[in-house]
Every structure is written in structure tokens, then in C-alpha cells.
Amino acid sequence: MNSSFTENILEKILKYGNEFWMPFLCGEIRGIFVTFHKYKDAGVIINDQYFIPKSFNIQVMRWINWVPIDVRVSAETEIGNLTVTYTALGVLPPANVPSKAFCTLKRKNSDIIKRDGLGWIEHITRDGFERRTF
To answer: How is the beta sheet containing 112-124 ordered, strand by strand?
Structure first.
């Protein structure tokens, strides 16, 4: 049997590392970004319309003791480009980070929407402690 079917998600996260769960709520812009190893998934709701980003990139701007405290996510949606910036409000061990979130949506029609809100950064590295690049 293929090992990808016998391991549960937690085993895969600990084996491959680089797991992020990043929900956010910025007024009418809200969603979540999820990634570990080669797996990437996201969902974004803008003005009550659901979008699956065509692509997204997570960039950690600042780490403290293996915990990402400033993170920028850039996502391409069918209506425009979304940037979500997370800034830590604190750290709940081992690596849960309640955050301020700032969302900027640059629509294809040139409109720009900017909203403040809240977010959450949860990050587990391989074996639970070894930081890896992604």
C-alpha cells in the first residue's frame, strides 16, 4: 500500500515539516492558507464570494526562536491579487501566534481594498522544532 494513504496528516506534518495554518478575518475579506511539505491549499471569501487562489506564496519576514512572528502571504485570485500581512500580538507555545492581519486586495479593475483585522499563525517544523526553508 502507498505510504501516503497509511500516514495520517499529523504523521506527515512531523515527517515533512513546514506546516502552516493561517486563517484571517479582515472585514469582508476572510479565509485560510494551509501548507505542509508540497501540499498547499487555500480558500478566500471576498464580499461573500468564495475563491480558491490560483497560487499563493508565504514569506516569513521575521522569526523569534523558530516562531514566525511577521508573515506575508501573496495570493492570486480570479478577481485580483491579495496580500495578507500577519503581525504577532503574542505567542502561545509552542508555535501558535495570534496576530493582527492587514489585507490588501488589488482588483483587476484597478480598485484597491484595504482592511485591518485578525489572524492566526500556526507553524510546526519537521520533528516539531527544526526550521526548514520553503
So the answer is: 49-51, 39-46, 29-36, 19-26, 112-124, 96-107, 80-88, 67-77, 55-64
